[in-house]
Amino acid sequence: MAEAELSYEEMRRKRLEENKKRMEELNLKNLSQALKSNTPKSSPGKPRTPRKPVELSAVRRSSRVADMPKPNYKDVPIEPLERLGRSHNRGHSRRDLFNRVYASDEERAYATERAEHLESTLGSEYPSFVKPMLQSHVTGGFWLGLPNQFCKKNLPHRDTMMTLVDEEGEEFAAKYLAEKTGLSGGWRGFSIDHNLVDGDALVFQLVAPTEFKVYIIRVYDSEDREGGGEDEEEQKDTEGGGEDGEEKEDKEGEGEDDKEEPDVQNRRSKRIRARK
User: Fold this and answer.
1) Given this model, what pLDDT does residue 49 score?
2) What sections of the protein cross the membrane (predicted)?
3) Closest-CA residue to 181 (of 212, 207, 154)
4) Where do the structural domains in the chain lie, given as residue ranges?
5) pLDDT digits (tens, 9 = 90+) for 133-148
6) Three-class SS of residue 33?
């Protein structure tokens, strides 16, 4: 065992001596010392110079600005804006939705017939169409849809402002929506200012690319209709002649007293009011 330990120690000593000789041959010790000496030393930080306090002085301004009063930047409460009316100073009062007037089918058809007759007298120089009024046009929604084919053929293909000119020459602005083919903003004012009701028939004549001439046929202006009916009956009686005509006149004379009261009622326009 002792010999084995001595041989290990001798081998270890010899290995150390060999390694030392190799390091001396490679000059590693001197190289490591040279690297230590060549490393640059970090320079100390530069001292920070304190800033000089800024002297507050008046800003140079021109004489015109200097003479003006100083602006006040305090918050000033903004007064609510009043709703501006149009130039003719008409107020758009709210309509009583509980007292809506509904036109009968007979009255509606007669007003439309009169409007179509008026349209035929306008000629074909400018395109036109007839639009009967409904409750949604004159009371609730205030949206007026126009004929689709008429809009695609004659009106602009983008949203624009249209001018509505009534029979008195007064102008009203209304917003035309090309995608929905109808009048929206501004139509409410036109409807209220002209007291349009359910059953009225309007004739729209396009006198310019963005201008309508509007003719209003009132559904409850039915005096012409009643007068025309009486004239037709008298004309038929005179054309009958002879004994038959006299007999008819006698029968009509006998029934005048009985029919007098219903005739007065028929002359009045039929108005159906919505119940609350």
Assistant:
1) 82
2) none
3) 154
4) 103-217
5) 888 888 776 788 999 9
6) helix
